[in-house]
Amino acid sequence: MKRKIVLTGAFIGMLAIILGAFGAHLLKKWLSVEQLNTFEVGVRYQMYHAFFLFFLSTRKDIAEKTLKTIYNLAVAGVVLFSGSIYLLVTKEYTVFDSKIIVFATPLGGFLLILAWLVLFATILRKKS
């Protein structure tokens, strides 16, 4: 499981760098400053959670089942939160119907919060 967490963190981090460069260099020709700032929020949160996954992989005191729960919440949260931001910001240039995913950003954010909450509660319950 830890290898999977590290690999996912590396992939999410690499993708965040690619998307950040894409936004900074290519999208600035088509998007407003506000839209670029919003796109950057998606990139930033994606990168934060790449590091979150790396941290998670270092924990030896968390049960495998709990690791899997936190991992699933974080990955689903990144996909929904950051992914929906990318799609919503670029909706003028794609055939994607943004009405379908308007709920995805807050749901993704909620899943990210839950991932952190499960980690917090798990560590809090441990007796040091």
From TrEMBL:
The family this protein is said to belong to: Belongs to the UPF0382 family.
Cell compartments where the protein resides: Membrane
Protein name: DUF423 domain-containing protein
UniProt organism field: Flavobacterium cupreum
Membrane-spanning intervals of the chain: 39-58, 70-89, 101-124
Membrane topology: Multi-pass membrane protein
Keyword Cell inner membrane: no
Record has Membrane as a keyword: yes
A single GO cellular-component term on record: plasma membrane
InterPro entries cross-referenced by the UniProt entry: DUF423 (IPR006696)
Signal peptide: none
Name of a matching Pfam family: DUF423
Keywords noted in UniProt: Membrane, Transmembrane, Transmembrane helix
